[in-house]
Write a structure and sequence with these properties.
This protein is an all-alpha fold. It contains 5 helices and no strands. The chain has helices spanning 6-28, 33-41, 45-57, 61-73, 81-98. Helix 4 (61-73) runs antiparallel to helix 5. Mean pLDDT is 81; it is low at 81-99.
């Protein structure tokens, strides 16, 4: 990846986050606020690109949440605070959806 200034990197991350969220909104109309919060905490370009592709091809919001949780729990992505926050919020929302 070419060298990016902090401002450029922040702008790229924000764009990737917005793109994933927008696709989910267009495809599924409603996106749980907890899921949006989790996406907005992510700071890994590769993870956000993967989520962007998943948002295009996934069959449901629930499947997207499962993929997100798998990504965050994998050894490849260890963001400490973000990982535990994301897992907790996605799990909380899934309990509400299943209720």
């Amino acid at each position: 990846m070419p060298f990016l200034s902090r401002i450029e990197l922040d702008a790229k991350l924000e764009t990737l986050r917005e793109n994933a969220i927008t696709i989910l909104e267009v495809r599924f109309r409603e996106v749980p606020p907890e899921l949006i919060d989790v996406i907005n905490t992510l700071k890994d370009v590769a993870v956000l690109k993967q989520l962007h592709r998943q948002a295009i091809t996934i069959l449901s919001i629930q499947e997207f949440q499962q993929v997100l949780e798998q990504i965050l729990c994998s050894e490849k992505y260890s963001a400490g605070e973000t990982e535990s926050l994301a897992s907790r919020e996605v799990s909380n929302h899934q309990h509400l959806v299943n209720y």
